[in-house]
Amino acid sequence: MNQEFTDKLIKTYPLLYNNFYYFETEDGWNNLIELASSLIETELKKLSEEERENIHALQIKEKFGGLRMYLGNDTPFIRGVISMTELTSMSTCEYCGNKGKCSGKGWIKTLCDSCSI
User: Fold this and answer.
1) Which residue in 86, 15, 95, 81 sits closest to 48, CA to CA?
2) Count: domains in the chain
3) Mean pLDDT of 103-111
4) Is 61 part of any domain?
5) More exposed terminus of the chain, fewer Cβ within 10 Å: N or C?
6) Does 36 reside within a domain?
7) Could you tell me the pLDDT band of residue 50, with boundaries at 50, 70 and 90?
8) Residue 100 three-state SS
9) Domain range holding 13?
10) Distance of CA 92 to the CA centre of its chain
11) 25 Cβ partners below 8 Å, 6+ apart?
């Protein structure tokens, strides 16, 4: 993920990205990460300070061809957002964001036809 987008996420969603500064994903998933971040940040704002304790991003990366979002804690709503985001990533090209498919024999990637060449 490019540094400009990383900086934007950290600035726009300070509750979620408190003390977080590194993403291990390609830019094709930026829209998915942005939407999930927005939904999670909105949920965090509804919680008391005590309730949102430890609910912050720990790691966001690609694993087995899909996006993975790891948080220190969560709520049922946040778990649902993460599950939907991870599922959607399995059909979204990691590089360009177009419709993709998960494939590979060693290192599994989700790519569109154009990016898989």
Assistant:
1) 15
2) 1
3) 85
4) yes
5) C
6) yes
7) very high
8) coil
9) 3-111
10) 12
11) 1, 33, 60, 61, 62, 67, 94
